[in-house]
Structures are given as structure tokens and as C-alpha cells.
User: Which sequence fits this backbone?
């Protein structure tokens, strides 16, 4: 079965610094997708970025990029030039077939002014 | 606007009092799911549905029921809620076609069972 591990329960970063949120995964499937979601204090789940297992290049979406290292089974989220509004809980997830997403425990990111 | 709606957003109830959380999507998605979020555990799937009248258990189905009589609706039913079902609940939908098949999440329902 798939498993996602986020080892950083909380992170504190100065505004404007880059931040890397760690995510490792475990799967025996050759084809899979990796997702990052942001959950602000209001509670909604906001999709940030997606990486397919066969994608040759790392995904990027604005200030978000995904550092995908397939051999190491890691899919770290990099946020460049952090902003106060980036303070939130961040979840890494992997699809398990078409049925569901498997989520990590989450990392609470706090951006300090 | 593509969206998943859930109602109610907040609910406080007592042990044993049956309740239903509604979920509706306007994107004609085949797949719909219910997740619960608990601190330190992330989101875990309760039930999912692949189409009308097709549902299956997720990872934590005990104490929950679902139905899919219409494609757009996927209600979550707690026949006899207990305090351990206090959680944040999310409904989600997606096409099931793979690739960047982003799951669209509802706004969440905060349930407290006393």
C-alpha cells in the first residue's frame, strides 16, 4: 500500500526566504501522481502542484516547485520568496489508483515577518 | 464556477443522534470521496463512489454510511455518532481519468459529537 511521510510537523521561516517542505513516499506502482495541498487556517484544501511519476521535468507553478527525486522517492515542495500568506498547513499526497489520495501527516509552516 | 459544496459547515451534536452531511458537485465528475482529517494523521478516506449506485469502503468506514443516487450528490450519514467521530470532514470529487486529475475539495464540515 502507498504511504506518504512528512517528517516536519512544524517549520518557522523568515519572510522572503525560500522554504523546502519534505515529503517521502512509498509505492510499488510504476505509475503514480504526487500532489501538494495548502490548508490555511480557514480550513479549505487548496491544490498547489502536481508531479506525475513519468514526468521528466520537475513541476513548477509560480512560486511553487516540486523537487522530484524518483530514486530517493522524495517529492519536496519548494516555495520561493515566502510571504506571510504562505503560513498554513501543507499536505503531500499520492494517488492510489483512481480511488483516492493518500495523505501525509502535514507540515505547519509559519512565516515570520 | 466549478465547486464542491458541503452542508452544514459546522455541526455540534450529541452521541447517538443521526445526522447527514450533504455534498454536491457541479462538474459532472464520476468519482466522489469522503475524507476525515485528524491532527497528526492527515486526511483519511472514509468512502468513495465511482458512479451512481457504486460505492466502496475507504480506510476508515466504520460508523459511516453513504449513498450515490444522483451523480452530483454524495451524502455522508452517521447513524449513531460517537465522540470519536469528532473531526473535520471533506467531500471531494474528480474525473478518475488519471494524470493531473486534481481532486476538488469542498470547504469542510467541522463536526463535534458530545
Assistant:
Amino acid at each position: 500500500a502507498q504511504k506518504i511521510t512528512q517528517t516536519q510537523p512544524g517549520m518557522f521561516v523568515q519572510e522572503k526566504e525560500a522554504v523546502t517542505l519534505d515529503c517521502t513516499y512509498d509505492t510499488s506502482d510504476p505509475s503514480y501522481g504526487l500532489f501538494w495541498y495548502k490548508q490555511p487556517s480557514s480550513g479549505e484544501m487548496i491544490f498547489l502542484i502536481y508531479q506525475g511519476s513519468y514526468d521528466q521535468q520537475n513541476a513548477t507553478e509560480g512560486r511553487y516547485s516540486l523537487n522530484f527525486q524518483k530514486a530517493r522517492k522524495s517529492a519536496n515542495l519548494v516555495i520561493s520568496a515566502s510571504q506571510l500568506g504562505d503560513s498554513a498547513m501543507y499536505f503531500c499526497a499520492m494517488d492510489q489508483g483512481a480511488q483516492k489520495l493518500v495523505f501525509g501527516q502535514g507540515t505547519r509552516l509559519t512565516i515570520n515577518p | 464556477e466549478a465547486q464542491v459544496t458541503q452542508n452544514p459547515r459546522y455541526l455540534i451534536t450529541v452521541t447517538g443522534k443521526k445526522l447527514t452531511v450533504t455534498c454536491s458537485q457541479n462538474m459532472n465528475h464520476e468519482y466522489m470521496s469522503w475524507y476525515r482529517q485528524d491532527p497528526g494523521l492527515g486526511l483519511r478516506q472514509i468512502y468513495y463512489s465511482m458512479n451512481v449506485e457504486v460505492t466502496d469502503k475507504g480506510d476508515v468506514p466504520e460508523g459511516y454510511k453513504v449513498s450515490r443516487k444522483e451523480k452530483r450528490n454524495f451524502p455522508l450519514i452517521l447513524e449513531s455518532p460517537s465522540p470519536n467521530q469528532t473531526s473535520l470532514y471533506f467531500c471531494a470529487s474528480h474525473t478518475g481519468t488519471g494524470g493531473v486529475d486534481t481532486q476538488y475539495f469542498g470547504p469542510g464540515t467541522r463536526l463535534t459529537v458530545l
Notes: The two ends of chain B are 36 Å apart (CA to CA).
